[in-house]
Every structure is written in C-alpha cells, then in structure tokens.
C-alpha cells in the first residue's frame, strides 16, 4: 500500500472583506472522510501543516445546525478524537520529501484561504508532485492551496488544467457570502485554470491527468474513491 501526504491548514482565523476575523480551520467531514477511506483501503496517511502546527477544526463543521445531521456530527467528532495523536503531531511542510509519497490530498475548510494559498513550502511540494505526475487531490476550499504553486518562471503550475472547487454560488449562498475576502473558484479562473461547476451542493469530481478535484463537502466520498482507483492503477 501507499503513503499519502494530507496537507491540512493550520489557520484558525480568516480576515473577512470587512476586516473582521472569522474562526476557521479544516472542515471535519472532508478530513474525516478522506482519511478514513484511504486508511481503510490500507494506505498510510501522513498529516502535514505549515510549520508543523496543530491543525484546528472549523467549529462550524462540528455544529449540528450547520452540518444538518447530529449523528454525522458526532461521527466526525469521534473520528477526530480517534486520530488525535496524528493531528497533534503533524509533519511540517518544510520537512516534507515528496519522494516519500504516492499522492497529495488537500481537504478544505476556509483555512487554506488564509495560509496554504500562499505557502512557499506547499509551492515546492505541489510543483514537485505535479512534475512527477503524482496524484494531487484537492477538494472544496482545498484547491486554494493550488494557488501557491508556480514554476521556475513564476507561472501558475495548474494554468490550463481542468478542475473544480467550491463554487462562487456556494460561497455566496452557504459560505461566507459577500463578506468573503476572495472567491476560490473565481481566483483559480483568473490564474488560468478551467474550473468546472456542477449544481450547488451536489457531489462533483473532475479528473485531469494526475489532478483529481472535488467541488464541496458532498464530494468527499467520491473524491476519495476516485483517488483510490488511481492508486490501484
């Protein structure tokens, strides 16, 4: 089985358009589903964050009113408790050797908009992984991390690639609304990516060569399954 690098935000706050601070972190469902599906299939998942800091969970992602299902909320809470030791001792992105891994996974939450989108170590990781044709699997707001990746000429590594991400419509209607500091999908388009939107809040996965992306939390399971299929060859 393979060793998978899961890159997780370490940001617990995002500055909104009006200058206020919004509590954030990783989205519980996304990390839990991806981690659970990959490890159940026998893969070893290594969690890495900027600076090796403990990744915070977005409080909204463990709120039954937000999730819409109290039982699922408790399921996510219990799973995070079960992998607490892994979350408490992540690898620092600066210490990651891409050669050790078979794939890179980036779950979302709004946190990546605050740190991963601008992280120089993630730039190196993604550029190296893409050059080696390793599967790269970001989903929901995780594709914000792709924005960090530039080639030696300063060009966006994923320009011209087809992918999906949390849509502008989803951000407006169920995300941060008009107070979002920037829109992930719109910014990816501005940088040259071909972003495909499906209906809001429906599962949607797009594969372009080694890039496998998911639109939203509802895409978590399908994204994990798509990655497993690729890893199975």
Automatic annotation (TrEMBL):
GO terms for molecular function: glyoxalase III activity. SUPFAM superfamilies: Class I glutamine amidotransferase-like. It is an enzyme of class 4 (lyase). InterPro entries: Class_I_gatase-like (IPR029062), DJ-1/PfpI (IPR002818), Prot/Nucl_acid_deglycase (IPR050325). GO terms for cellular component: cytoplasm. One of its GO terms (biological process) is methylglyoxal catabolic process to D-lactate via S-lactoyl-glutathione. The keyword tRNA-binding does not apply. Keywords: Lyase, Stress response. It holds the Pfam family DJ-1_PfpI. Its EC number is 4.2.1.130. Residues 28-229 form the DJ-1/PfpI domain. Belongs to the peptidase C56 family. HSP31-like subfamily. This is Molecular chaperone Hsp31 and glyoxalase 3.
């Amino acid at each position: 089985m393979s060793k998978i690098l899961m890159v997780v935000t370490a940001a617990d706050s995002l500055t909104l358009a009006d200058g206020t601070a919004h509590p954030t972190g990783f989205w519980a469902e996304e990390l839990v589903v991806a981690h659970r599906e990959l490890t159940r299939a026998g893969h070893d998942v290594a969690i890495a964050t900027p600076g090796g800091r403990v990744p915070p969970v977005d409080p909204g992602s463990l709120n039954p009113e937000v999730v819409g299902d109290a039982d699922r909320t408790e399921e996510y809470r219990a799973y995070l408790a079960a992998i607490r030791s892994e979350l408490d001792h992540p690898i620092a992105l600066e210490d990651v050797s891409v050669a050790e891994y078979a794939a890179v996974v980036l779950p979302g939450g709004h946190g990546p908009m605050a740190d991963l989108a601008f992280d120089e170590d993630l730039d190196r990781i993604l550029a190296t992984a893409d050059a080696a044709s390793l599967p790269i699997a970001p989903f929901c707001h995780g594709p914000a991390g792709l924005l960090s990746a530039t080639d030696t000429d300063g060009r966006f590594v994923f320009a011209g690639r087809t992918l999906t991400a949390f849509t502008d419509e989803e951000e407006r209607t169920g995300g941060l609304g008009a107070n979002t500091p920037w829109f992930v999908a719109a910014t990816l388009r501005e940088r040259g990516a071909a972003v495909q939107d499906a209906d809001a809040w429906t599962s949607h996965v797009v594969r372009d060569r080694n890039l496998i992306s998911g639109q939203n939390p509802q895409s978590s399971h399908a994204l994990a399954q798509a990655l497993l299929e690729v890893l199975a060859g």
